[in-house]
């Protein structure tokens, strides 16, 4: 039962094959634009600040958000919108769908800005029933970010990503490893939306905001020590992959900053980026593998030891003027 739930967590929220098999990972292609460093007044955050937080308990709000969604929602349509390029979104239709979801999205925003999140113990049967609902909540946030990016509403998109990452942190504090893995999976979804965000031509640079996220972003070591070895290994692997994802995005934002002050060009080597430090891969504790070919570059990291080839990371970065 527990192994099945682990696979469901990965399948529903991370999107990886549940059987652990599959071909080597294909590169994620990002179209990037040079960026200048944000002005001192533009203090972007990817988690809510302390003065935004309330003393309410987030659990009650998340449970309300999990209540039945509008009956006329077309989830196949929402899934389709999440797969097409952002510029092809039918904005009026997407906005109409999000308008139906305003109460749910408002509850998530409130919950994410609670200091306290006191999860009760949830058994495997209850968690398996909640998994599809949590997946749906994440899809709602994904869709809202994509529309906001499409409309050039960068501050609003950052706030929605804040909500998703704070939700991930809350879930990561669950009393069991499986609940914690839900949090890691939600964090992975928000990283994929950050990939969309940084491709927007006028998107502010989030290097500093990414650098200021905690590492590990979600720490599952306390929950993992009570689990069977194979489940513990899967949980810790997902935790490390999330931290790698965050570090890679920070590295990519460093490259955008470099291009913004070097005639719109990528550096020949990562070591050429001297104005700000580029993060190492937290899995290998070595620099990411970087190669430049003209206006394109690749950023890669190998699969962790003992993991399938699909656990490797590969980005193809294409720099526009």
Features of the shown structure:
321 residues; alpha/beta; two-stranded parallel sheet; 6 strands; 9% strand; globular
- Global mean pLDDT: 90
Total DSSP helices: 11
The low-pLDDT segments are: 16-22
Number of domains: 1
Shape designation: globular
Strand content: 5-15%
What order do the SSEs take from the amino end to the carboxyl end, as H and E? HEEHHHHEHHHHHHEEE
What is the rounded Rg? Answer: 19 Å
Number of strands: 6
What strand order characterises the main sheet?
1-6-5-4
Find the structural class using helix and strand composition.
alpha/beta
**Biggest sheet features:** 4 strands, mixed
Helix content estimate? 40-55%
Q: What gap, in angstroms, lies between the N and C termini?
A: 52 Å
Describe this structure in words.
With 321 residues, this protein is an alpha/beta fold. The protein has one domain. It is built from eleven helices and six strands. The N and C termini lie far apart (52 Å). About 2% of the residues have low confidence.
Secondary-structure blueprint of this entry?
Layout: H1 2-14, E1 28-32, E2 54-57, H2 58-65, H3 75-81, H4 91-100, H5 102-112, E3 114-116, H6 124-150, H7 154-172, H8 177-197, H9 207-211, H10 221-224, H11 229-261, E4 289-293, E5 296-301, E6 313-319
Parallel strand pairs: 1-6, 2-3
Antiparallel strand pairs: 4-5, 5-6
Helix pairs in contact: 1-6, 1-8, 2-5, 4-6, 5-7, 6-7, 6-8, 7-8, 8-11
Quick structural overview:
The protein has eleven helices and six strands. The chain has 321 residues and is α/β, with parallel strands linked by helices.
């Amino acid at each position: 039962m527990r192994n099945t739930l682990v696979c469901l967590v990965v399948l529903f929220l991370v999107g990886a094959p549940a059987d652990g098999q599959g071909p080597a990972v294909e590169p994620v292609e990002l179209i990037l634009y040079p960026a200048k460093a944000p002005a001192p007044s533009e203090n972007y955050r990817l988690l809510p600040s302390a003065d935004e937080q309330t003393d309410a308990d987030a659990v009650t709000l998340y449970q309300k958000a999990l209540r039945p969604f509008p009956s006329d929602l077309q989830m196949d349509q929402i899934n389709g919108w999440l797969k097409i390029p952002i510029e092809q979104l039918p904005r009026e239709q997407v906005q109409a769908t999000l308008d139906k979801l305003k109460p749910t999205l408002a509850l998530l925003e409130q919950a994410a800005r609670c200091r306290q999140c006191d999860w009760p113990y949830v058994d495997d049967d209850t968690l398996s029933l909640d998994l599809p609902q949590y997946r749906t909540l994440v899809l709602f946030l994904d869709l809202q970010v994509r529309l906001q990016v499409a409309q050039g509403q960068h501050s609003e998109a950052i706030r929605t990503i804040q909500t998703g990452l704070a939700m991930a942190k809350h879930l990561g504090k669950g009393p069991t490893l499986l609940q914690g893995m839900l949090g890691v999976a939600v964090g992975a979804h928000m990283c994929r939306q950050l990939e969309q965000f940084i491709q927007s031509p006028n998107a502010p640079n989030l290097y500093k905001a990414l650098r200021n996220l905690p590492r590990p972003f979600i720490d599952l070591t306390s929950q993992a020590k009570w689990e069977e070895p194979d489940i513990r290994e899967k949980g810790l692997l997902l935790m490390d992959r999330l931290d790698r994802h965050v570090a890679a995005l920070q590295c990519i934002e460093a490259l955008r900053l470099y291009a913004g002050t070097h005639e719109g060009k990528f550096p020949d080597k990562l070591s050429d980026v001297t104005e700000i430090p580029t993060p190492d891969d937290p899995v290998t504790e070595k620099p990411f593998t970087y190669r430049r070919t003209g206006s394109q570059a690749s950023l890669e990291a190998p699969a962790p030891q003992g993991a399938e080839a699909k656990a490797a990371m590969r980005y193809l970065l294409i720099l526009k003027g």
